[in-house]
Design goal:
- The structure is a homodimer.
- The first copy, chain A, contains twelve helices and 20 strands.
- Helix content of chain A is about 35%, strand content about 30%.
- The first copy, chain A, has a domain at about 5-250: 3-Layer(aba) Sandwich (Carbamate kinase).
- In chain A, strand 16 and strand 17 form a beta hairpin.
- Chain A has helices spanning about 15-30, 45-55, 65-70, 70-85, 120-125, 150-165, 195-205, 215-220, 280-290, 315-330, 360-370, 390-400, and strands spanning about 5-10, 35-40, 90-95, 100-105, 115, 130-135, 135-140, 145, 170-175, 180, 190, 195, 225-230, 240-245, 255-275, 295-300, 305-315, 335-350, 375-380, 380-390.
- The interface between A and B is large, with 42 and 42 residues.
- Chains A, B: It comes from Leucothrix arctica.
Chain lengths: ~400, ~400
């Protein structure tokens, strides 16, 4: 008998009819004899409705109270799914974040899970009940309701799976797994039945939207296998992607997939003194403004000055630029410039560890198409390049073909 | 400095704009220097929306899970009102039933409050915050979410007022107080500025819809003054009705008002043995079916048998009749009959205690209009009669005039 944690996203529980379908699926799993814990999101559209009510107030109120409002969406779903299960004679019991003992820090709207008290859930499981837990929410040490940020339900699911030592964490969504790249960009993209958590981590952080990056980090840290499935498949025998420990994957490929992110912007500050601490002086004010920096590149000049380039989310571009200009004045920089029409393309694969020459092959393929590389960054299992946004699709298709990822590849 | 508990109903918080109006009103009260605790209902329409989602499931699921869903309505309002207050620089903090320490029994959908832990609210009040509490909800001893039944927010408000030893519990609604009778039936009905809790209790249980009967019972038991006000009045100097201890009301009138209830049905069983315990044999099965019995009347016959008549809510008529017929067979009754087109009219007034002849005057006035009385029931401060439903309005108007309750009365 296995213990399975399942998570259903907003479109999977988007209407009472969809909820009934989920209930039938959960019951089928239960009847195989497994213990089932289900994590639910708010019904699709519900979180936006609640955000709309808050926005109608034109409020500058606290995020504590926003979390109070937003956390109701998942509570509605958990009650409805429990009712749907009871209606088909499948005993169920719902848990709010608080009832599930999900304790977070007090960072409202982006709280992090600190601990889970699994005892009450274990007791109800032992009585044969299916457990339904509200995703996206917890309480801090003082009992204030917190939320984990958009997509936080994935994180709830993985955290519960870890706390309960589940055999697998299943993420039901509207696609049937992870693909070698986005099929909307490359029609020939192929389904990946199995990949390593570390690869998924790079795929997720490089812009693949199937799983929340925080959830994958959690799973990676605690070795929790995640399976991505579609809740729109008829049966339970459809395709899926198992994201698991590297050593559980027989075949290591050099390149598992091509990830990309078009929401990037690049900033450069030129002619700053090449002294220790200058990186901190440049990036400190940026991160103080809560702007996340992605890639960083520093060119050492010859005249005792240096050029410094970094990328950020495109939405933060104008704010970051004015901060950088202020820093530039203080440091006596010769120039501050930027570009918000860039994109990042990455190839990911655990096999890179043992294969040399992957980068060379990547650069050769891109240069053959005349695509100029503006920045390069590498890790053990991925290589990212920044290109002009207009080349994004061409770059993705080129790399997808160059590494033989398509279904028509030999 | 006073401590005031205010309760705002669904129409008072029916939209973000209405919530902003409530926030302004709460702030005005706060600025007078009083401590303010606010209890909120779900936005009007919200509870029906949630009930609709549940009904769409065609579920026979547990009331535990229904409470999980229904309790979210008030949680949304409490968060929105707190945000609206913070936006106008009035520090506020919201409390779910659980956070407010409202412990109930486990009777889901009609739970009764057992205790309230007022310590956390007191602490936040002492820091100058306005406290917003979700009405209608609590948790049982095991932390399961419970609801108090429709209109339960009034009960939450009074219970909190009692626990906090508030100076007054203000119920904001869409009318500006209690009237001598329903102005839709008697245009001449007059506003009552002050009446006794015991009178309100009889008015409420006799069908006056302004306050929830359970809330008034609670206030009566603990001597908590309730003020009924309209949240649609522009300022705070509009009309209101103070419902308070009898000894705080200088002028005792003989008849305070005329209450009525048209949702009544009458059942009669004839020719049953006139033995001890027969009443229990007749009414036991009725109350086992959760049908509430209102008036009861027993005529002793001459031949060792008796006739037994009682009234119930009209919605339960057919179920009660089939139960009664089964009982009739067992007891060898000569006849079971009923009428679901009856209504109850009552006059209420604490002054009745010291005035004789009120009943006579009532019966005289009704007989002058040719209205036949089918049942009569009296308490210390009220007299109720059952009449054919078609006479209801006539009876109410007749009594309203006979006891000089209209604004044109001398």
């Amino acid at each position: 008998m296995a213990l399975i944690v399942q998570k259903y996203g907003g479109t999977s529980v988007g209407s009472p009819d969809r909820i009934k379908e989920v209930a039938k699926r959960v019951k089928r799993w239960r009847e195989r004899g497994d213990d089932i814990v289900v994590v639910v999101s708010a019904m699709s559209g519900e979180t936006n409705r609640l955000v709309g009510l808050i926005n109608d107030l034109n409020t500058n109120g606290s995020s504590r109270e926003k979390d109070v409002v937003l956390s109701t969406g998942e509570q509605v779903t958990m009650g409805l799914l429990s009712l749907a299960l009871e209606s088909i004679d499948c005993p169920a019991k719902s848990y709010t974040g608080r009832q599930a003992g999900i304790i977070t820090n007090s960072a409202h709207s982006k709280a992090r899970i600190e601990s889970i008290d699994e005892a009450p859930i274990r007791k109800d499981l032992s009585e044969g009940k299916v457990i339904i837990v509200a995703g996206f929410q917890g309480v801090d040490g003082e009992g204030n309701i917190t939320t984990l940020g958009r997509g936080g339900s994935d994180t709830t699911a993985v955290a519960l799976a870890v706390a309960l030592k589940a055999d697998e964490c299943q993420i039901y969504t509207d696609v049937d797994g992870v693909y070698t790249t986005d099929p909307r960009v490359v029609a020939d993209a192929t389904h990946i039945p199995k990949l390593a958590l570390e690869e998924m981590l790079e795929m997720a952080s490089q812009g693949s939207k199937v799983l929340q990056i925080r959830a994958v980090e959690f799973a990676y840290k605690y070795d929790m296998p995640i399976r991505v499935l579609s809740s729109f498949d008829d049966g339970d025998n459809g395709k899926s992607t198992l994201v698991t420990r590297e050593e559980d994957i027989m075949e290591q490929v050099m390149v598992r997939g091509v990830a990309f992110n078009r929401d990037e912007a690049q900033l450069t500050i030129k002619g700053v003194p090449d002294t220790p601490g200058v990186a901190f002086e440049i990036l400190g004010p940026i991160s103080d403004a809560n702007i996340e920096v992605d890639m960083i590149l520093q060119n050492i000049g010859t005249d005792g000055t240096t050029d410094f380039t970094f990328t950020i989310n495109r939405a933060d571009y104008s704010e970051a630029m004015s901060i950088l200009k202020a820093t530039g004045k203080t440091l006596g920089a010769s120039e501050c410039k930027g570009d918000d029409r860039i994109a990042k393309v990455s190839i990911v694969g655990a096999g890179m560890r043992s294969h040399a020459g992957v980068a060379t092959e990547m650069f050769k393929a891109l240069s053959k198409e005349g695509i100029n590389l503006r920045m390069i960054s590498t890790s053990e299992i991925k290589i990212s390049v920044v290109v002009d946004e207009k080349y994004l699709e061409l770059a993705v298709r080129t790399l997808h073909e160059a590494f033989g990822l398509g279904s028509k590849a030999v």
